[in-house]
Amino acid sequence: MSKLTAWLSPTLICTMGLVLACSLLFVFDANSLDYQRQAIAEGQWWRLITGNFNHTNLWHLVMNMAGLLVIVSLFEQHFSPLKLVGLILILALLQGLGLYIFYPNTLGYVGLSGVLHGIFGYGAVFDIYKGIKMGYWLLVGLIAKIGYEQVFGASMMSV
């Protein structure tokens, strides 16, 4: 086995497929997939999921894709490709539903940040479950980050 194939596990290859898909959506400006509350209310339910995969600008895309690669690399031992894809789709749906139900003033949304938080939380909880004590610190850090953003707002770099 070559060094490259040893480094590129099936889970990381799957992750790179998502990076490619998000990049293509950005290049082709697929606004018809954005989370748009009015369009969802009119029956375009897929936007609950697909809005997570579009991005506002190149910096937003690059930061989200880098975050995805780092988070999946950090917690790779907890995922198979199928489990990761399933988790991402479930988290994307929950993100969209959460916005739709609990944040009615949010008319539009794009980006993978909510899904990234979910993957990170899942990985930290699995670390704790497997006896990896660093998982507690990672989970506390995640809660602190989300709490800070709820009080002071998210970074303006993604707008």
Q: Descriptors for this entry?
A:
single chain; 159 residues; mainly alpha; Rhomboid-like fold; two-stranded antiparallel ribbon; 2 strands; 3% strand; globular
Q: What would CATH call the homologous superfamily?
A: Rhomboid-like
Order of helices and strands: HHEHHHHEHH
Radius of gyration: 16 Å
CATH top level label: Mainly Alpha
Low-confidence residue ranges:
none
Predict the CATH topology.
Answer: Rhomboid-like fold
Q: Could you walk me through the main structural features you see in this protein, from its secondary elements to its overall organization?
A:
The chain has helices spanning 3-7, 10-27, 37-41, 47-50, 58-74, 81-102, 113-129, 134-152; strands at residues 35-36, 108-109. Strands 1-2 form a two-stranded antiparallel ribbon. The relative contact order is 0.14. The protein has a single domain (3-158), classed as Up-down Bundle (Rhomboid-like fold), CATH 1.20.1540. It is an all-alpha fold.
